[in-house]
Amino acid sequence: LASRDFHPADTVIKIKGVEIGGEQLVVMGGPCAVESPEQIDEIARLVKAAGGQVLRGGAFKPRTGPYSFQGVGVEGLIMMAEAGKKHGLLTITEVMTPEYVDVCAEYADILQVGTRNMQNFDLLRKLGTIQTPVLLKRGFSATYDEFLNAAEYILAGGNPNVMLCERGIRTFETYTRNTLDLSAIPVLKQLSHLPVISDPSHGTGRRELVVPMTKASVAAGADGLIIEMHTDPDNSMTGDGVQSLFPDQFAHLLQDLEKLAPLL
Ligand code: PEP
Ligand code: MN
Q1: What is this model's ipTM?
Q2: From residue 183, how far is each of 4, 142, 201 by CA, in Å?
Q3: From ligand 2's centre to the CA of 6, what distance in Å?
Q4: How many Å lie between the centroid of ligand 2 and the Cα of residue 109?
Q5: What string of H, E and C letters represents the secondary structure of 205-241?
Q6: For every one of its 264 residues, what pLDDT tens digit does the chain have, with 9 covering 90 and above?
Q7: 144-157 vs 184-191: helix axis angle to the nearest 10?
């Protein structure tokens, strides 16, 4: 079902007037984690002012270590839903277990499956039983075939609203946190009809690389971007402050993307 052979036309996912996979370049911006109502409200205001369409923020965080901050949970979903509604943005948040799919879908417009859960088949099966759009991140060691098979689980269950997200893979290079596989963007667009989103934040792990790799992703044919932005990155509650853009960088980047669009 994920294959272009089966479905030649691009899939366009329509959510409250925003089209993902169509003509419009969709930008999802926000913090790694929802921290407080004030934080998410202010960041939502900045995402909207910059021209973004979707507010990102994790309420449940998949942390590598068990003692790290794990997210604020359901309260975070509520804070983010309020900020999204107030500022006219869609929202996207990560869901980690099948039991939390329903509550996350109640509050968020798009559900994110993180890289560590790409092959959490119980989670994928559960996501196939609803119609809420899903952003499926590529496992950091997954081949394209494994990635598309993971998407297939959701599609096979009856949910056609799946977008694929390249977020960097593990390579021998240690300078960057991951290696953003730019080739994944045109390859996935060729093999599949599903929208392809790029995550240059986790793909590089370094703020100074997010701007060029965002532009490169757009040039490579991405339908959208998911970018971390924080008002106070140095004091963010996850380690992802080092890859979060400052609000003015985010705003300038979106202006540059508008200039880039007509050239492509
Ligand atoms: C995130 O989006 O904050 C995140 C944890 O992403 P990933 O699953 O790609 O590491
Ligand atoms: Mn993050």
Answers
A1: 0.99
A2: 17, 14, 17
A3: 34
A4: 19
A5: CCHHHHHHHHHHHHHCCCCEEEEEECCCHHHCCCHHH
A6: 999 999 999 999 999 999 999 999 999 999 999 999 999 999 999 999 999 999 999 999 999 999 999 999 999 999 999 999 999 999 999 999 999 999 999 999 999 999 999 999 999 999 999 999 999 999 999 999 999 999 999 999 999 999 999 999 999 999 999 999 999 999 999 999 999 999 999 999 999 999 999 999 999 999 999 999 999 999 999 989 999 999 999 999 999 999 987 777
A7: 50
Q: Measured from the CB, is residue 230 less than 6 Å from ligand 1?
A: no
Token pair in block for residue 224: 């959208």
- Tokens matching residue 132: 């809420």
C-beta 138 within 6 A of ligand 1? no
CA-to-CA dists, residue 1 to 28, 62, 94, 118, 186, angstroms: 26, 29, 24, 17, 19
pTM of the model: 0.98
Write down the H helix ranges in the chain: 37-50, 74-87, 101-107, 121-128, 144-157, 184-191, 200-204, 207-219, 247-260
- The label of the residue with tokens 């994790």 reads 58
Q: Cβ(158) to ligand 1 under 6 A? A: no
Which of 35, 63, 112 has most ligand 1 atoms within 8 Å of its beta carbon, as the pocket-test mutant? 112
Question: By three-state DSSP, how is residue 120 classified?
Answer: coil
State both tokens at 236: 């963010």
Q: Which residues contact 118 (CB under 8 A, 6 or more apart)?
A: 136, 137, 138, 139, 142, 146, 147, 150
Atom 9 of ligand 1: nearest residue by CA position: 115
